[in-house]
Amino acid sequence: MATVSVTVASALNAITPLYFKQFFDLLSARDASIATSLVRVLLIIGALRLAQWACWRLATFTASYFQSKVMTDLTNMCFAYLQKHSFGFFTDNFVGSLVKKVKWFSRSFEVISDRTLWNLLPLAVNATIIISVLFNRNEWLGFGVVVWLAVFFMVNAIFIRFKLRYDIARSQAETKATGFLADTITNQSTIKLFDGYDREVEQSGFLHEQLRRLRLKTWNFGNYFEAAQGFLMIILEVVILYIAIKLWQRGMLTVGDFVLIQSYLMYIFSHIWDFGKIFREVETRKRRIFRSLGPISRSSSS
Known about the structure:
The chain is an all-alpha fold and 302 residues long.
């Protein structure tokens, strides 16, 4: 139900600018007699917005029910399975790391589900409709957007493959640092008894310095890519509007078409800006699930 609601809401969102185009085409005529037509178009826009609102509300409630139930089931499954392991399993694994991996397992499902439902699905639906509408207005407009999206996704794919190994390394460093902190708190009496304060402080500093360097490296890679991404968006906006001006000079486009094109460009920019981050996060979470399954699903006879 949530998937259907998001699909319908996204489709309505892509259709609404067509009526804004009609509204501004009527308005540009500067004829007072068209006021009734303007009100009619405005009422249609309002009805479409209300329909979108209803679909989004339905999607949020159904998704909340579904995700909360599945996350609870996953956590209970992990807990029940962990209790079947041998005593040696718990002594061979850091308590803090096991706790974090169990939390990752259910949390990763939530993140993947959210990103797919609220980001990737609307982007796919809207991109399909936007490209179809622009091709219908003029093939050069549609072709320009298709080429730009192809270049954008290709650059994203290359960057994601390059940066993902650093994201995984950072995630592993976070796990080690968190597990070390949890275990030192758990074994605080042992540390005090055997005078391990200096050794543990030094180890903590080493682990967190490793984590700092990996965080800085991955964040800077993200900053470089966002700069390139913003440059690509500037190119698309200038080129598409330049094509639109030339078509308008030939009488093939109207003033309303400029509103339509700019609305679509703003939607593409706002939803595609975080595409790389979303895709990397989904891939990272998928890898975390498989890594979490390793120690959790290990045979209890070990």
